[in-house]
Amino acid sequence: MRPLAVVGNVNVDLILGPVAPWPQPGTEVMVAHDDLRVGGAAGNAALVWQAMGLPFQFAANIGTDHYGSWLANAFPDHAPRWPVSPRRTTLSVGLTHPDGERTFFTTNGHLLDMTAPAVCATLDGAAMGQGLLLLCGCFITDALAANYAALFDWADQHDVAVALDTGWPPEGWTEAARADTALWLSRSRIALFNEIEASGFAGAKTIEEAAETISHGMPGDALVVIKRGADGAVVRDADGHFYRAAANPVEVIDTIGAGDIFNAAFLAAYAHSQPLPVCLYNGVATASKAISTIPRKIAQQDQSI
Question: Alpha-carbon Rg of the chain, whole angstroms?
């Protein structure tokens, strides 16, 4: 198995819903479901690998309040190496909607203080040779993203392939966001976009066109993965071949973190040298299981995440 690592945002998620229509100011709305859980793109992926019993490295940081301690307790094998920010812990409130969509309200908090030198110091490069590093939360870890060059240099030095999931830019796909993403993609071996992100970044009308456009700015052996929610997922390999996996029909409870869960399961299979169709299936099946269970469970094992 190739070594695994994840770098990015871990924060507190408070999930409430479903909510429809959008409430009027000054009113109170009762909802049927609530969940307080470890979240963030990196946090969600790490929870999957942890539930699978896989060895992995995890570079993150936490805030100085009780929520920071709570996050640290969720990752006892990793948190002792994390820097502690003097800021409050980043909090996301996710409102779910009956159609499966969601709306986030997120504070900056401790994520503002995540830096490339601290990340590189947290990771054990000697143990990561020929490994896979999932890099996520790009647009909400400003200080880290501003010095991604140092992280990519670290990855090159230790023969680590970067799998990039940028997430959605808060300001949308501005010229600056596209330029930053294109630079990061040029040094990544795997791109992990959802359908809306891929279409927005590439300005393409079809998934195939988006994947082609994304791949053109990446190394020659790169993979482009596009997550399509209820329509499953697609991957374009280095030879331009497309593979697809359909999603399992499930009763959706909430989709928050589904893409992050897919990322972890896909990369876990890829680290085990599984064929791309199998990697896609694992990602889709794991995400489908997670979004349809309370407490959340993964497909491979009956463990909460």
Answer: 18
